[in-house]
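Bug #77: duplicate submission created two jobs. Keeping one. Sequence:
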Amino acid sequence: MDENLPIKSWAEADRPREKMLEKGRQALSDAELLAILIGSGSRNETAVELARRILLACNNSLHELSTWSLTDLMKFKGMGEAKAVSVMAALELGRRKKESQQEKRSQLHTSADSYRAAADLFQDLPHEEFWMLLLTRSHKLIRREFISRGGLSGTFVDPKMIFKAALQYLASGIILCHNHPSGSLHPSDADRGITARIRDAGRLLEIEIVDHLIFASNSYFSFADNGLL
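Kept job's structure:
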């Protein structure tokens, strides 16, 4: 069995921690940053080499890497559960940092505004999720509210949960949001049906359904822009 080699025992040129301390984090390649998270290699391979193998398998795309599961990472020789968890935790922190940069009280006048306010919620998701943006009467964003999580082809949406949250936060308007992991921007019959039911229920409660956005392939489809509300 190969013995793990800690970074401090590598050749000096292969020590990304020391390189970061000396030159700053910007000087490190993606493989070197990933190697710091991995922590150790083996007798036959340094952590940097392992990191390069992993990145090569995901086409050197951090976006693609962030969609991988724990099992995907552990398929690589030298990647145990603890190392895989560290990598996934770092990628999730990056996603949450981006989410925290959203301006909570931004005003949403167009579908493009709404897209920018919610796009990070669906970044890298391999499954379908349903969220909503709660708005004031002047269309200022109150909060982003998670509704449900599903599989590759759909997720269950309960209108009661939507209006429970809307009433709790005294929202006057709602923008519905969900993603299509398949990459299709075409609304399904189910998408149209749930939108109509929520719209009709909103009228009774005097809560406007401002739009319903479908997110896919770094783009979106707007029900409002296409006259479907």
